[in-house]
Write a structure and sequence with these properties.
Elements (H helix, E strand, L loop, with lengths): L1 E2 L11 E5 L7 H11 L7 E5 L18 H11 L3 E3 L11 H12 L2 E7 L12 H11 L2 E5 L3 E2 L2 E2 L2 H10 L2 H8 L4 E7 L4 H4 L5 E4 L10 E9 L2 E10 L10 E6 L10 E12 L6 H17 L3
Length: about 300
């Protein structure tokens, strides 16, 4: 997948353009991608337009599902040809007509546009799908509007997924994302308390600006060097040992080697229990041993 620069242009390349924020690239977003992907038979390339994650802020925001790097990686894995993600402030004052002409047509070379029913654009989000359809009709561009995808009878949305994460309903979040929610981060040094208590763990920083899942212990799956391992992950602030910055700490069953500095994928599969403050480290050890035993019995 090729990134389009600020000065770059796809003019001369015929494209099917996806329009949206695409936080999470959930099952609804993937239907928009499939609509664009279906235009390959007409000789079109797929081009993703989205704003740089974190550059669009709304009042009361609870954070992103994924940082920008993960959103981009997902579209790359889906097979998108081009990716353009400018910062919101650089385009926010364009009128709907200016955005349509300057970005969609002149920069991205759109012959087909694909979006969801709730897509809005232009200064102060002044235009929606009806205005976009008129512009497309007058410019000879085909518009494909994808209806919402339902999960358990309700429309899938990024907000709904975030609320599922916050409540600890990781299974529903994973279903709506079409992949297990987790983190692909480098292993950092912690206090090495787990190693001293005979259950070594890896520590990973939770990306800044992302939504925090419900604090507690999860059954997890760890991917490292092409192999998958069962894990027990604690998301939270480690109250017993007095650490205040949210991290994810994982004990990996069947793997006992130093992973410091390595990028490791940890996916959350099932919420097991709340984060608890114990009076003593011994009580903590006994509970963690019980968590490990329970994780070994769970169906992945």
């Amino acid at each position: 997948m090729t990134d389009i620069s600020e000065s770059g242009s796809l003019k001369g390349t015929k494209t099917a353009v996806l329009l949206g924020i695409f936080d999470g690239v959930h099952i609804g977003h993937r239907e928009v991608y499939k609509a664009a992907e279906g235009e390959r038979k007409s000789g079109l390339k797929t081009a993703v337009f989205t704003f740089l994650s974190g550059s669009v802020t709304t009042k009361g925001s609870i954070g992103l599902i994924y940082p920008e790097k993960t959103k981009r990686e997902i579209f790359d894995s889906l097979g998108a040809d081009f990716y353009y993600s400018p910062e919101f402030y650089k385009l926010k004052d364009l009128s709907a007509e200016e955005f349509f002409n300057n970005v969609i047509i002149n920069k991205l070379g759109a012959k087909v546009i694909c979006c969801g029913e709730d897509f809005r654009f232009g200064k102060n989000a002044s235009a929606g799908v009806s205005e976009l359809r008129k512009m497309c009709d007058s410019s000879g561009i085909r518009l494909k509007v994808v209806p919402p995808v339902l999960y358990k009878g309700q429309a899938v949305s990024s907000t709904r997924i975030k609320n599922a994460l916050i409540s600890g309903d990781i299974e529903s979040a994973n279903d709506m994302l079409s992949r297990a929610f987790g983190y692909s981060e480098r292993v950092i040094h912690g206090r090495e308390l787990g190693r001293k208590l005979d259950f070594p763990t890896i520590n990973q920083q939770i990306p800044s600006g992302t939504v925090l899942p419900r604090f507690g212990v999860y059954l997890s799956e760890v991917s490292y060097k092409g192999k998958k391992y069962r894990g027990v992950s604690n998301v939270g602030v480690k109250p017993t040992v007095g650490k205040n910055d949210p991290i994810i700490e994982t004990h990996i069953l069947g793997l006992n080697e130093s992973l410091y500095g390595n990028k490791v994928r940890v996916e959350l599969k099932k919420f097991m229990r709340e984060e608890i403050r114990f009076d003593t480290v011994t009580e903590l050890k006994l509970q963690v041993l019980k968590d490990i035993e329970n994780a070994g019995k769970e169906v992945m």
